[in-house]
């Protein structure tokens, strides 16, 4: 670009008075203090510059560097000089915009002579700007505004004048930006105030309308502010709640836990999902769930009334337990026919052996008596084992996960499974060597296994083969996704059959509660849904693989337990029964004469004095007499209106500390308070071995 020409000769240069400069700057400061609008500040600066230098025009405008335009809102003009207010394009008046973009001041003494403006001099003279100074104003390195001075005649601009113009430009820029910042701050403060006011209105509306219980409390445990929902939920007025400490409303059983939660808040910690009970004004208690955070000396809390949810949860638990028990009893019913046949066989073996013993003894032949006795005892033990297994399976009990060896559980179930399948179904058990342990509820797994076996049996009405198989499974990402399980180590318990199989539509609904394909009256549809629920509750899964006409495979996947295994329990050698001492006396109460006879004979053989009674009333007469009684042995299910537990309690009224041994054929009995017995009371389940009875009697009497 052509450089600007040398400054004109001295006839163009006007003297600049320093005193006038100082006076102008003072006037500028006075004007700035009195003005607030940025446009007024810019106009004041332009006016002072114009009058100080005696030029035709002065102004301040904002720049658009990309469009190369200046926007002038207002400028100062000498009499007869037109305003430039509006938008002007720099290129219409020369090439000096390039200097301005570089941050350089454009100084033109005579537009006709300056190469930057020579070709556009006429346009400049038309706007009374034959001579001018354009001083760029920059912010953060950018060209944002322009302070300009125009004169209709050619004139020279001294360095002193340019320095003064720069001083005024800088002061104007600072003042304008300060005013703009102040205006923006005032605007933001106004907006913020309006928003705060609006938010306060909204917060107050939420506070009043919220169904949640909102509170602000002290660290000392008192409400400072609470919303109306507290009164709606608890019945107390807000003043009543604020006039008492928390502890006055908390359920006694929840005081300690609430104190711990308060301690956490006092120490600066937050408390989430904490639940306790608050007393309603009518005396009942409501369950409240708390989420609270400390802020300084205050505690802010959002509390929700979860009483209805807790009651629904309790109802759901009771319903689930009832469904579980109904499903168990359905399975028991499925087993009844096969077990009745097996018990008849066992009873035939016992009865036949006893008849043969009777015949041999009548004939004076004793050689085969031992063999018949052994056969009868073996049949009795097998019947007892089946009975205990069936009763243990059908009784109600809470889920109790323990570390178990699944192979042992399957082996223990084998006889019950085989007998329930019937002669037309072949049963094969394939257990994996080195099978991992799993931490699950053993009774629920037995329940699941038996249900799968019963389903398999029903799918093979013409007979077939049932296979129970265990294995270790290491599932990677892909295998885990296929089974809806996280990758890891699992054990599988699979039951397969060669039965009718299932269509895909049946498999898709197989785990739905109450869904069954069996005829009405032959199934509740609870079996597979309970198996599925048990597996999921144990962090496992169930999968069904089936083809119509080919059979079905159902696999339960259970997580491996990586902790300690199941300790081995060595079988203790049973010592010879200990004899009675010093006339020790036992009262035996049982309505079954055979059982009573056997117990009394065993006691007599051990040297005890045995007293018999056939029902509770007769037994109580003995207990209320002066006879020596060291131990009461009583059946639980006695007739004539007094059961064994009632007899024991009545006997202890007359004989405090009386030792009691209950003998019962039930796996669990309500009269025994579901296993919760007083000290000195024990239970022995029928049938029992006589040496076990002797050991239990000796242990109770000497305890």
Q: How confident is the prediction overall: mean pLDDT?
A: 81
Radius of gyration: 51 Å
Which secondary-structure class do the elements indicate? alpha+beta
Strand content: 15-25%
Largest sheet: 6 strands, antiparallel
User: What is the first-to-last residue Cα distance?
Assistant: 120 Å
Write down how many β-strands occur, each being a DSSP E stretch of 2 or more residues: 23
Uncertain parts = 5-14, 520-525, 667-671
Helicity range of the residues?
40-55%
| Number of H/I helices | 19
Shape summary: elongated
Strand order of the largest sheet: 3-2-1-6-5-4
Question: Would you mind describing this structure in some detail?
Answer:
With 703 residues, the protein is of the alpha+beta class. 43% of the residues lie in helices and 22% in strands. It has 19 helices and 23 strands. The strands form five sheets. Strands 3-2-1-6-5-4 form a six-stranded antiparallel sheet. Strands 8-7-11-10-9 form a five-stranded antiparallel sheet, with helices on both faces. β1 and β2 (69-77) form a beta hairpin. α2 packs antiparallel against α5, α9 (307-362) crosses α12 and α17 packs parallel to α18 (644-654). It is elongated. 28% of the residues are buried. Residues 5-14, 520-525 and 667-671 have low confidence and may be disordered.
């Amino acid at each position: 670009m052509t450089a600007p020409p040398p400054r004109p000769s001295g006839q163009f240069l006007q003297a600049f008075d320093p005193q006038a400069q100082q006076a102008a700057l003072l006037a500028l400061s006075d004007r700035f203090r009195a003005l607030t609008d940025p446009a007024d500040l810019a106009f004041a600066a332009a006016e002072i510059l114009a009058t100080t230098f005696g030029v035709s025009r002065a102004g301040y405008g904002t720049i658009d560097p990309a469009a190369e335009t200046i926007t002038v809102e207002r400028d100062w003009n000498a009499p007869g000089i037109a305003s430039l207010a509006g938008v002007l394009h720099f290129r219409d008046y020369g090439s000096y915009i390039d200097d301005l973009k570089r941050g350089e001041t454009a100084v033109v003494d005579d537009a006709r002579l300056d190469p930057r403006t020579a070709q556009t001099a006429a346009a400049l003279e038309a706007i009374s700007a034959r001579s001018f100074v354009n001083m760029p104003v920059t912010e953060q390195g950018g060209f944002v505004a322009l302070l300009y001075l125009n004169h209709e005649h050619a004139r020279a601009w001294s360095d002193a004048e340019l320095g003064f113009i720069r001083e005024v430009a800088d002061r104007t820029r600072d003042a304008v930006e300060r005013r703009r910042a102040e205006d923006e701050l005032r605007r933001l403060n106004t907006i913020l105030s309006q928003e705060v006011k609006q938010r306060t209105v909204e917060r107050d509306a939420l506070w009043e309308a919220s169904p949640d219980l909102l509170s602000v409390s002290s660290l000392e445990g008192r409400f400072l502010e609470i919303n109306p929902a507290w009164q709606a939920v608890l019945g107390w007025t807000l003043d009543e709640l604020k006039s008492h400490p928390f502890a006055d409303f908390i359920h006694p059983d929840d005081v300690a836990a609430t104190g711990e939660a308060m301690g956490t808040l006092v120490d600066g910690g937050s408390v989430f999902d904490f639940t306790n009970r608050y007393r309603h004004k009518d005396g009942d208690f409501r369950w409240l769930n708390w989420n609270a955070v400390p802020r300084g000396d205050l505690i802010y809390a959002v509390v929700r009334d979860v009483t209805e949810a807790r009651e629904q949860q309790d109802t759901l638990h009771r319903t689930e337990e009832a469904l579980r028990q109904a499903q168990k009893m359905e399975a028991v019913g499925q087993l009844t026919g096969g077990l009745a046949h097996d018990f008849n066989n066992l009873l035939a073996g016992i009865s036949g052996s006893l008849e043969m013993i009777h015949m041999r003894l009548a004939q004076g032949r004793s050689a085969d008596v031992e063999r018949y006795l052994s056969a009868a005892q073996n049949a009795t033990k097998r019947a007892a084992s089946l009975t205990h297994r069936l009763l243990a399976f059908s009784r109600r009990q809470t889920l109790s996960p323990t570390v178990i060896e699944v192979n042992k559980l399957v082996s223990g179930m084998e006889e019950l499974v085989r007998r329930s399948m019937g002669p037309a179904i072949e049963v094969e058990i394939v257990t994996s060597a080195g099978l991992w342990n799993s931490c699950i509820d053993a009774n629920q797994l037995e329940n699941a296994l038996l249900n799968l076996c019963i389903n398999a049996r029903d799918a093979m009405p013409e007979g077939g083969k049932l296979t129970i198989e265990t294995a270790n499974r290491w599932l990677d990402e892909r295998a885990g996704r296929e089974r809806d399980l996280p990758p890891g180590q699992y054990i599988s318990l699979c039951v397969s059959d060669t039965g009718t199989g299932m269509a895909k539509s049946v498999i898709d609904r197989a785990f739905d509660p109450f869904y069954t394909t069996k005829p009405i009256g032959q199934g509740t549809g609870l079996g597979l849904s309970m198996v599925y629920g048990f597996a999921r509750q144990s962090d496992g899964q169930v999968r069904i693989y089936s083809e119509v006409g080919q059979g079905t495979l159902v696999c339960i996947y259970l997580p491996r337990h990586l902790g300690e295994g199941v300790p081995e329990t060595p079988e203790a050698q049973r010592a010879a029964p200990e004899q009675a001492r010093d006339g020790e006396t036992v009262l035996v109460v049982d309505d079954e004469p055979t059982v009573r006879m056997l117990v009394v004979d065993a006691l007599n053989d051990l040297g005890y004095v045995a007293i018999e009674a056939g029902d509770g009333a007769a037994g109580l007469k003995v207990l209320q007499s002066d006879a020596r009684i060291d131990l009461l042995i009583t059946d639980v299910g006695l007739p004539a209106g007094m059961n064994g537990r009632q007899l024991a309690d009545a006997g202890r009224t007359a004989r405090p500390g009386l030792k009691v041994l209950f003998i019962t054929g039930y796996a669990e009995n309500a009269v025994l308070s579901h296993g919760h017995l007083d000290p000195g009371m024990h239970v022995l389940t029928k049938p029992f071995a006589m040496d076990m009875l002797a050991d239990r009697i000796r242990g109770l009497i000497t305890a």
